[in-house]
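Narrative summary of target 7.
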Amino acid sequence: MRNTILVVDDEASIADGLRLTLEAEGYSVRIAGSVRTALASVAQADVHMAIVDLMLPDGDGLTLTKELKTRDPAIEVVVITAYGSVRKAMEATKGAGAFYVVEKPFEPWELHLALEPASRGGDLVVRLEGAVVERGGFRLGPLDLEVRRGDRIAVTGRNGSGKSTLLAALTGKLPLVSGCRELGAGAVVGELEQTRERFAVEQPLVEAFGGPQERARRLLAKFGLGADDVLRPARTLSPGERTRAQLALLAARGVNCLVLDEPTNHLDLPAIEELEAALDGYAGTIVLVTHDRRLLERFGATRTIGV
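Modeled conformation, tokenized:
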């Protein structure tokens, strides 16, 4: 009787949890953490079922599913996938034979868990002294501004008054025409710019994100961007998807100073609520520009700067 189940998942906690549950039911379980080792295991054992993660370090679960069904049509396959990708996974595996798709047991978009500063940093975050900055024909300054650890600063002003230009001066994105900018010791500044330009490129999202691809896939999945999304050219992402990708990047860097320019633009209500909760519990420094009155009220600014 065939009673061996192959679990293909590179997250040890999930793979071990499945193994213990299945062994308690009397099944023999083999664990594989990649496409390569999964195919080797199938060749070595009489596997009757495979439980396959949609995202694997050396490929994707959809391709593996099709390969397993091609090798042995009798194998039952269960694909575990991130929330929101079930329908896409089912469409992508049409023609692969009988299989089942279930949601993976973790919740994406848990910003209150993801946005954590990696280090405390010093008391000074960034200082502008006599700073003058220009963008196109617009000139702002001279400015004297000091941002200190733990500040929650709201920058207000009418459209075109220079709020985004001020943020660019703080982050160093725009060079100063005169004056000076000092970055504090240990300060790690991360910016969510209004135009979301970081991902307006031809590269696949997972490459544009940078770093080890396995880690990038995991972080992006937590922000609702699954296996089919990470392989798309980044420029094809919707504005809301670009926002989530940028927030995932800030989480990856462990920034201790968030500079947010209209962060709720293009986000749906559940995502906005998660962002609000994330900022509520964020222990670092925040400089915020927003026209969202609800976010501004909940933000709890320690200081307001009018431009």
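The CA atoms of residues 35 and 64 lie 6 Å apart.
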